[in-house]
Design goal:
With 395 residues, the protein is an alpha+beta fold. It has helices at residues 12-38, 46-53, 72-85, 87-98, 100-107, 110-121, 240-276, 288-316, 322-348, 359-367, 376-394; strands at 127-130, 146-150, 153-164, 171-177, 190-196, 202-207, 218-228, 233-234, 278-279, 282-283. It has a four-stranded mixed β-sheet. The radius of gyration is 21 Å and the shape is globular. The chain binds flavin-adenine dinucleotide. Flavin-adenine dinucleotide is lined by residues 95, 129-132, 137-138, 162-164, 210, 213, 218, 368, 371-373, 375, 377-378, 381.
Amino acid sequence: MRRSYGGTGLSEEQRQICDLARQFARDVLRPGAEARDEHEDRFDRDPVDRLGELGFLGMLIPEQYDGLGLDMLTYLFALEEIAWGDASVAVSMSVHNSLPTQTLLRHGSEEQKERWLKPMARGELLGAFSLSEAGSGSDAGSLLAQATRDGDGWIVTGEKLWVTNGASADVALLMVRTDSPDDRRGTRGVGAFLVPTELAGWVPGKKERKMGLRGSETVAVSLEELRLGPEHLIGEAGRGFSYALEALEGGRLGIAAQAIGIAEAALDHARDYAGEREQFGRPIKDFQGIQFKLADMATRLEAARGLLYRAAQAYEADEPRKRKLSSMAKLFASEMATWVTRQAVQVYGGYGYSREYPVERLFRDAKVTEIYEGTSEIHRLIISRELYLERGADE
Ligand SMILES: Cc1cc2nc3c(=O)[nH]c(=O)nc-3n(C[C@H](O)[C@H](O)[C@H](O)COP(=O)(O)OP(=O)(O)OC[C@H]3O[C@@H](n4cnc5c(N)ncnc54)[C@H](O)[C@@H]3O)c2cc1C
């Protein structure tokens, strides 16, 4: 049996949500995870829709807007459970909950909330988030897709890349330039638009063939004279990049939770396998070399969990150190997950290298957590920058 929530001070309602997530992960997600990994060419939206029916696509949205109105910690607990069941489903849940919906909640008008946020919170509309382009990843502010004024609306052209849920989502939060080529304003020249993906100019292209997370849909999107009205612009035209960064600060807590869920699954498998597999006339769990490995895996996992919960607390309380802590949690949890899943493969020996067993998939799935929503290198930059800012503030 996996962890209890002892010591976390959860209310009965929060505990029930976590139990529901655990049950769903065990009974619905885990049995289909291997097939979703095998058939990466067709995205299976059904588990994500079922999460929506349970209210899990509106966890952080207030009840006033048809969400569950839960706190960040409960959401992260649930996300860990979902990632334990299938990391590919977890990323859809994480993107939807933390990026487009949070931006709409913070910066959308009441009409936009009524039209899009409410059905998103009810799980009737699935969201995507489109910031990256071929030439702009870590340096996301250098994006080139262009919105040009057309009457009181915009015509948007350009190429976006790496859009999770990009072909199947119903709506996408799209970041494009709203300054003009003659008057570039850097990151202050970017707008955020809420785009219904049924619009003619939103053209999903090639699906990425990925190392892991193959059950998740990642696509390139061409913006072909995409016509948007003023009702699609979220907040102010030049503020879209700052809205995106703000959302990503919470988003990376979700990715840390995803990494923890993947690592927990790998540890569970490794522990069980070590109890069953016999060599030299006894279970391999009786060898100290394996015992130490399991102990180190479990210890690093709990350390990541502790850091994530501390970061979530800082996020909720809007502490000055929240940015540093959320980068630390994402950095530490993702590197922990790649390390733990690698150890799990080792505990399985040759069988760990076989696609017959789940740990090789977990090993492949874990890797991306070090890359998206800020690479490990970028988070190290943020952490070190924050250290000096803090010192400056103390002086
Ligand atoms: C499966 C998947 C899903 C994704 N989903 C989405 C999505 O839904 N929406 C979206 O907008 N994007 C998404 N992305 C894109 C993701 O956020 C980017 O891949 C990520 O930000 C890294 O950008 P890049 O791939 O261009 O790498 P680059 O920025 O080109 O980085 C290449 C290497 O250089 C390093 N590097 C770059 N700059 C520095 C620096 N200043 N100092 C030190 N090292 C540096 C990086 O850490 C990395 O190791 C997704 C990516 C993947 C793989």
